[in-house]
């Protein structure tokens, strides 16, 4: 009888240990992140300084059949949302407006390995919290690590609802096309008398040819777009208004990298300085990051070490 009791107690203890082990095994590691922003930082979805990171979206023959890297940002953020008991859905479709090269934009748009992982996504968590993350392509290029693969530079960024709406309303490279079409329609000579219409046919032809230009030709160059973001950021930061949006514009300008041309090089460096100021001196923006000081230091170290920027060196000394 005593032996049976001991056997039952032992079996019960083993069962409890098994349940405990299963509970530990099934715990979702994604639930351990305090926020989506912390996940972005600790999973290194962007570069250490917050700039866009390269992901392979089309493997070559050597790695045929391998999973694309370009869907990883969406995958991790979706898993985090679901681990918090939330629902993850597409809020705004990406127009790839930050990709200024037409051929590169078409190549990315035609790849499901890119189109299925970009845009603005919304998570509605079980506890009532709601957050939005933007995953946007910046450029397309040959992979730096794999010679026979193609890569896309993606940036993941947490946005509020108004910011996401403004960004995706204004980011389309063809945003001016409807206005052009309406203007052309208003100038149509259909209502002119027949006698005058025949005499003016030759005069109207150049205007018709002009309106037939594809809207992509009117898109800003990367240098122009970078300059616009920088100018808007500097204006608003110096005036003390729209601080969060201004800091986002500074980060966007910095994310373009050092583009060809001396003016673009200066814009890149000064955008980085503005971004560092935001991370160290504007609480409404820096509070979004788990370690804003370290992120600012990475930006400044890049500018000081790789670009010999005197302002960055001075700011680093002040931060010590």
Give an account of the 3D structure:
The protein has 320 residues and is an alpha+beta fold. The chain folds into three domains: 32-173, no CATH class; 178-211, no CATH class; 220-320, no CATH class. The chain is 54% helix and 13% strand. It contains 15 helices and five strands. It has helices spanning 2-26, 36-42, 72-83, 102-109, 112-115, 161-170, 177-186, 194-199, 201-211, 222-239, 243-255, 262-281, 283-286, 292-307, 310-319, and strands spanning 53-58, 87-92, 119-124, 130-142, 150-159. The chain is globular. The N and C termini lie far apart (73 Å). Residues 16-26 and 175-219 have low confidence and may be disordered.
Shape: globular
Given as residue ranges, the uncertain stretches (5+ residues, pLDDT < 50) are 16-26, 175-219
* β-strand amount: 5-15%
How much is the radius of gyration in Å?
26 Å
Mean pLDDT score, rounded? 79
What is the straight-line distance between the termini?
73 Å
Number of domains: 3
In spatial order, strands of the major sheet run 1-5-4-3-2
- Secondary-structure class: alpha+beta
Largest sheet: number of strands, sense, barrel closure: 5 strands, antiparallel
H/E topology pattern = HHEHEHHEEEHHHHHHHHHH
Oligomer: single chain
Q: Give me the number of helical elements.
A: 15
Residues in helix, %: 40-55%
Number of strands: 5
């Amino acid at each position: 009888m005593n032996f049976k009791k001991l056997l039952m107690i032992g079996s019960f203890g083993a069962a409890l240990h098994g349940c405990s082990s299963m509970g530990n095994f099934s715990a979702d590691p994604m639930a351990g992140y305090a926020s989506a922003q912390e996940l972005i930082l600790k999973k290194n979805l962007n570069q250490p300084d917050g700039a866009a990171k390269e992901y392979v979206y089309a493997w070559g023959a050597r790695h045929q059949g391998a999973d694309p890297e370009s869907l990883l940002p969406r995958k991790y953020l979706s898993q985090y949302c679901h681990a918090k008991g939330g629902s993850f859905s597409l809020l705004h479709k990406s127009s790839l407006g930050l990709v200024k090269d037409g051929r590169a934009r078409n190549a990315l748009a035609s790849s499901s390995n890119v189109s299925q992982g970009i845009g603005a996504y919304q998570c509605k968590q079980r506890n009532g919290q709601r957050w939005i993350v933007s995953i946007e392509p910046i450029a397309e290029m040959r992979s730096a690590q794999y010679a026979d693969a193609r890569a896309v530079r993606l940036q993941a960024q947490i946005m509020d609802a108004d910011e996401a709406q403004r960004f995706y309303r204004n980011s389309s490279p063809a945003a001016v096309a409807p206005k052009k079409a309406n203007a052309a329609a208003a100038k149509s000579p259909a209502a002119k008398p027949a006698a005058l219409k025949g005499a003016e046919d030759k005069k109207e032809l150049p205007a018709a040819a002009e309106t037939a230009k594809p809207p992509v030709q009117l898109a800003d160059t990367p240098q122009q777009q970078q300059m616009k973001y920088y100018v808007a950021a500097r204006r608003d930061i110096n005036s003390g208004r729209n601080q969060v949006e201004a800091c986002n514009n500074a980060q966007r300008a910095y994310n373009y990298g050092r583009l060809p041309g001396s003016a673009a090089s200066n814009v890149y460096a000064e955008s980085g300085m503005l971004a560092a100021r935001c991370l160290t001196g504007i609480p409404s923006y820096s509070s979004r990051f788990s370690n804003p000081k370290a992120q600012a230091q990475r930006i400044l170290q890049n500018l000081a070490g790789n670009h010999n920027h005197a302002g960055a060196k001075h700011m680093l000394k002040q931060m010590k």
